[in-house]
Amino acid sequence: MRSIFAAIFVALLAIVGSAGAQADRPYPSSAVMVEVPGGMGSGFYIGDDVVITAAHVINGVEPRHGVLVSTSRNDLPADFLGAGILWKSGNLDVAALKLSNVPDDMNSAKLACREPIVGEQVEVVGNPLGQEFLHTWGRVSGVTRTDSDDDAIITPIDVMVSSGNSGGPVYDAKGEVIGLADRVIDAAKSKYGVGHVNFMVPSMVVCKLLEIAKHQGL
To answer: Taking 70 as the threshold, does the pLDDT of residue 94 lie above it?
Structure first.
């Protein structure tokens, strides 16, 4: 009888161990942690020494210093990279950071410059509440709209966006970045009942801002 219980216990340990292992994905994560004096958020690397994040993550930071970007790759110790602010759009809540000393093997994201589709699956990677590089899954839960408070262009998702997630990549099923995690509208900001709604800034906004910045020589 004891041998049967022992075999079951070993089997359960194997199941728990396999569940705790990182699931294989068809693309590498390009997510980074963005640290500023007094706070932190998330972002993603797009190549050419540039990281995209949410503009509110770097509010109050001097343009040429004060931002630290870190990334953990392939279970290696984190790399810490200095960054300056390349440009930012406060109304659209998107910013670009310029890195220094970027590792040659740093993973870069491909932007999906398209309209998100209601119901499509998404994966959010970020650093909610200081917990590093967590992955959560969900779906696009509504059509893209404009926030009446600040005119930001946002898309609702049913993945929880916590403090520290802001600016992190939202991947589609192909592994392309379809948006950046941005904000939560909760009952305190609404006259309608209780609860909350989570939003991302769609990548089509990021693509347009990158195009404008390129034309301006940034």
So the answer is: yes
pTM metric for this prediction: 0.83
Cα separation values, 128 from 1, 74, 161, Å: 46, 20, 8
Banded pLDDT at 22 (limits 50, 70, 90): very low
Q: Is 72 helix (H, G, I), strand (E, B) or coil?
A: coil
C-beta atoms surrounding 36 within 10 Å: 17
Letter for the amino acid at 106?
M
Q: What domains can be seen in the chain, in order of their start residue?
A: 31-108 (2.40.10.10), 121-210 (2.40.10.10)
The whole-angstrom separation of Cα 111 and Cα 65 is: 26
List strand residue ranges (DSSP E) for 108-152, in order: 121-126, 134-139, 145-146
139-189, pLDDT tens digit by residue? 999 999 998 777 899 999 999 899 899 999 999 999 999 999 998 877 565
**How far, in Å, CA of 195 to CA of 192, rounded?**
9
